[in-house]
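Sample entry (80 residues):
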Amino acid sequence: MMNKFQQYLLNYLVILDEAGNAITGGSPHETISSRAYKAWQAGRHWGCILCRLLDWIEKDHCKIASESVISTDAVIPDGR
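Predicted structure, serialized as tokens:
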């Protein structure tokens, strides 16, 4: 269980992640990891590379991230 500071820090990191995704044309409600998973599934090389790197931190990180997101407002959609 996280204490309040840890939860605050995690929330802050997620919002930075979502902002980075929005700046690059993705949905502001989706993390870069989730977007990378969709790109990987669509055969985009960058998604495969990023997901493999993130697997070193957490196994199946991109897949797990993609399962918790609903994003249909991307300017540059991936995986469709």
